[in-house]
Fold this protein.
Amino acid sequence: MVDAAGSDVRANFLRFVAVVLVVDALGLGLWQLLPPETPIRTAILLGTLVVAPLLGFLVVYVPAAADGA
């Protein structure tokens, strides 16, 4: 049986994964739209891989920590 705290952890993790996947999908979509010889294309790809988890953390876990404090 999962208690309320366990379900909160699972819900927060699923929200985190959803945010990361959405940001990655948007970044990869933008990456595909740009011509291959564009130098910003590599920056968008690498930036998406760095920004997606950071944004997921800020959207999901920072408000959860603020509510718990």
The chain has a mean pLDDT of 86. The CA atoms of residues 15 and 26 lie 17 Å apart. The radius of gyration is 16 Å. The helical segments are 4-33, 40-68.
